[in-house]
Amino acid sequence: MLSTIADYTRLTKDMGKSLTQVAQQPDVSRETDYFLSHIGNVKTIDDFLKDYRLYSYAMKAYGLSDMTYAKAFMRKVLTEGVASKDAFANKLTDTRYRQFATAFNFAALGDKATQTTAATTGTATQYVTQTMEEKAGNQNEGLRLALYFTRKASTITTPYQILADKALTQVVQTALGLPSTISSADIDAQAKLIASKIDLTDFQDPAKVTKFVQRFAAMWDATQAQNDPSTNPALVLIAGAATSISMDTNMLTTLQNIKFNR
Questions:
Q1: Helix residue ranges per DSSP H, the chain
Q2: If both were cysteines, with which of 11, 173, 253, 254 could 178 make a disulfide (CB 3.0 to 4.6 Å apart)?
Q3: Model-level pTM?
Q4: Averaged confidence pLDDT in the chain
């Protein structure tokens, strides 16, 4: 079995080629063809929600498949749009809803909302990317997380964005060697710890993102292979990465004892 790092390198070395291969798979190609052929006929939010095939495709494209059933919720997201700071989507912590309402901006564009690049080819590209990550996750959950983090990294500007996203949180906790139980600590304490360990501006640099993801992948593989260390291909990398991670033996206790000037 290839390590997470090897899988990640193989896919990202030529991301365009990797995405094209996924797009050409029969099931993906069939759904994308249907979406691109029919989305332009949608003129209202009702039209959109009634065509389950179109609607579910779009929801998957923006990582919202688990909310496909919540049509009343999504109707509110689409109806209020994103122009007002008080719009429903803008009040939600999860930015995926804002991205969805921006791509299908019925509130601002009316019956022209499905004519934009974001609503058509942009959504199709998102769908293929999501599908690639899901398929990768079927074989290696660590690989799915690594790909997702790579895609989202440049949008991260505060620790709270990480903490609001379970997948991003898992990547950061794993890369820093933090126990998952740390998530039960005070949210401000968690944010302060992340800010002290990571310079978030580094995530604007693709090379530094790759380095961080490689550290995550090495830690992930080491964790997965704990019961059989002899099979873990990442131990050598871990030895090097560990020197750059400064942690107390009881990080949770340290975190919970952090004091703030309020």
A1: 4-12, 15-23, 26-38, 45-50, 52-61, 71-80, 88-91, 96-103, 106-109, 121-139, 141-152, 159-163, 166-176, 187-197, 206-224, 235-242, 251-256
A2: 173
A3: 0.75
A4: 87
Q: How far is CA 257 from the centre of its chain?
A: 30
Average pLDDT over residues 239-246: 41
CA–CA distance, 238 with 257 (Å, rounded to integer): 28
pLDDT at 137: 86
Judge whether residue 47 has pLDDT over 90: yes
Q: Rounded to whole angstroms, how far apart are CA atoms 107 and 105?
A: 5
Name 256's Cβ contacts closer than 8 Å, sequence gap at least 6.
185, 186, 189
Residue keyed to tokens 């009881």: 250
Rounded Cα distance, 113 and 39, in Å? 10
Q: What's the CA gap between 167 and 188, in Å, rounded? A: 19
For residues 190 and 179, is the Cβ–Cβ distance under 8 A? Answer: no
- Annotate 44-81 with b (16+ C-beta within 10 A) or e (fewer): ebebbbebeebbbbbbbbbbbeebeeeeeebbbbbebb
CA 173 to CA 128: how far, in whole Å? 27
Please choose, from the candidates 67, 16, 45, the residue with its C-alpha nearest in 3D space to the C-alpha of residue 119. 45
The total number of residues shown for the chain amounts to 262
Three-state secondary structure readout of 127-144 = HHHHHHHHHHHHHCHHHH
DSSP one-letter code for 1: -
